Amino acid sequence: MLAEANVELNNLAAATTLVNQIRTRAAQTAQGCGTSSDTILTKKYIGCKTDSRLAVPINDPIIKWATYKVGLYPTFPDQATGRTAVRTERRLELGMEGERFFDLRRWGTAQQVITDYLLVEKTRRSYLAAATPFTARYNLYPIPSLQIELSKVGATSTLTQNPGW
Question: 122 exposed, middle or buried (CB, 10 Å; 0-12, 13-18, 19+)?
């Protein structure tokens, strides 16, 4: 989040440093199940207990599932490059943590990204055939009608419903 804020403030050197800290950490260890590097290949990932997780140096020869290369960014030349890099890192670093949708809404790209996804995936996944397209209405949550009623001063409501709800 701090790297993203620095990009938006056009402090690209600080943003680059923060993103590179994350990439440096990611390039040094791989996470997996086990108690030592000797047992990592014999354990199944399914049912991995949190107390049996280990961090293995990325260059350990037993690692077969983390063979990617993680390099560092030079200083971002402009805001657009910085935004792209920070957004990519958030997507990678926070994968499966439930942050992506909120990021997309904050960046104003939710409608395009979700629409593009549905166009491709509706033909592959039958359960998405009836999916409701993402529209501008979903950028804001509905205000509960009870709260609107409770906000009345006299006969005038101080809250109004968000557009589309």
Answer: middle
